[in-house]
Amino acid sequence: MMDVLAGFGVVVAVIAVGWLLGRTEALGPGARRVLANLVYLVATPALLFDILLRTDPRTLFSENFLVIAGSAVLTGLLGFLLFRLRGRNAADSLVGMLASSYANAGNLGIPLAVYILDDAAVVIPVILFQVAFYAPVTLTTLDLLHRSRQAHLVRNIVGALRNPMLLAALAGLLVGYLRLPVPGLLSQPVSLLAGAAVPVALLVFGMSLVGTRVRLSGDVLLAVALKNLVHPVIAGLVAAQMFGLTGAALFALVVLGALPTAQNVLTYALRFRTNEVLARDVGVVSTLVSLPVLVVVTLLLG
């Protein structure tokens, strides 16, 4: 447990450096966007591919994948129903559903997995499920609710396939499954770029905290409670009761469930001009709340 808590210390220290860089604008006013693009387009895809070169793909699609998918869907549906009961329309409730269950598996999930779980590979099923299934289905439903003439599941799947993290993961899975030899001319540069993913992602997170202002409305508090508290509880119950998982496996799945809301949700909300303020505020608040929640999870299960 002390090693895990020490990992938290490392994460917080790097985040603090990022906050200081953002506060002083030492890297310039546009640094956060540039670094965020570096993480999203280059470093994290390289890390995913590098991990999968050393991971048996068959181990990713086991009970863990079912728990990840099932807990996200159950939490999301609960969120949708609660938002509807609060009088929100179907489109707003769908964004609330995503805000309650769509995890920040890339920018924050991977660094936390490295330092808390000592295994970044556990995050890959979350990315695959969310980007390849959860987002396309939900976005198609939003398309239909907005009576878009272009509403089409295939179009949204094609859009998801442009995600560099998904492309890297699929490429890594294919190489691993076929056991194709990867020449050093490719693997070594990929490994070098992968090394930037975790520290730069944490720096970007710290920089994003500068000047952040949110409004704690009832909807925001509901979505944050679902994402930070209910989601990990459901993940733990499904893992333990349905699949009999214990120990490190159970701990990892609860940690993944407690990850904050992804910034992708705000992107989707902006695309459909639906519940944008909720998506923005839940992303910020759930991120701040996630760290103390993860410390508690570690003390209980780590």
UniProtKB/TrEMBL annotation:
Pfam families: Mem_trans
Annotated membrane topology: Multi-pass membrane protein
Keyword DNA repair: no
InterPro entries, sorted: Mem_transp_PIN-like
UniProt keyword Secreted, yes or no: no
Protein's cellular compartments: Membrane
Keywords: Cell membrane, Membrane, Transmembrane, Transmembrane helix, Transport
Regions crossing the membrane: 6-22, 34-53, 65-83, 95-116, 122-145, 157-178, 190-210, 222-243, 249-270, 282-301
Identification of the protein by name: AEC family transporter
Organism of this sequence: Corynebacterium nasicanis
Taxonomy of the source species: Bacteria, Bacillati, Actinomycetota, Actinomycetes, Mycobacteriales
